Amino acid sequence: MGIDYLGVRGRIFDIQKFSIHDGPGIRSIVFLKGCMFRCPWCCNPESQEFHIQTMMRDNQEKVIGEDVTVGQVLRMVEQDRAYYRRSNGGMTLSGGECMCQPDFAYALLKEAREIGLKTAVETTGAVNDEIVERLLPEINDVLLDIKHMNPIKHKEFIGKDNILVLENAKKIAKSKVRLTVRVPVVPTFNDEPEEIRDIVQFVKTLPGVEKIHLLPYHRLGRDKYTALGRSYSLDHIEPLSNEKRKELLKIVSDNGLKGQIGG
Question: Are 173 and 179 spatial neighbours (Cβ–Cβ below 8 Å)?
């Protein structure tokens, strides 16, 4: 008797429909709870902890996190199959870091493929390579964050170095999966031209990778930190100017890659 993947349980905090920014076409984004990084600019701080939390919204407590089965998730995702078919879209797993729940992520991806849905994963890539190898056959597109090439600065800002990220970037690029690199560009962390140039030079070594998305820092998630009872440490940081965006985007195109602002 086979494994009942539809019954595999995991923890999510949202399902966002009709997204056009997290993979090709129109997509449903399934946000899984838990992440190994602690990026201070994270616009989903409620995703970082695996445990179920509460947030204060409009003076009321809102529960963040729900335990669900693969079957429950796919019933919601499949409701928009017609939109996926017309736009070449599908389901994207995000977070947090969806690979922090590898069994649940694998079951979601496998069952989605079984019913004919295209799949994508938005990931930091900072997990053991065995997890990546297990999931790759069930994925059409990977959106991989590469935040910095310097492991010391990476650890200083985020809490962990980038060694696994870069190793898995090479592994994913050698697979049959379509890989797009995304760079959250944050002043004081990685917005200097040489820092972006270093990332671009690394990406040029990845076979088949043609696109880099530069994701400029914003404060849209700031109120969530207050709602979680946490302080927001980047109040002193200003968003990138249009001139700086153009300067960094030019570095990408000057190196023969397709660049764009935003995902």
Answer: yes
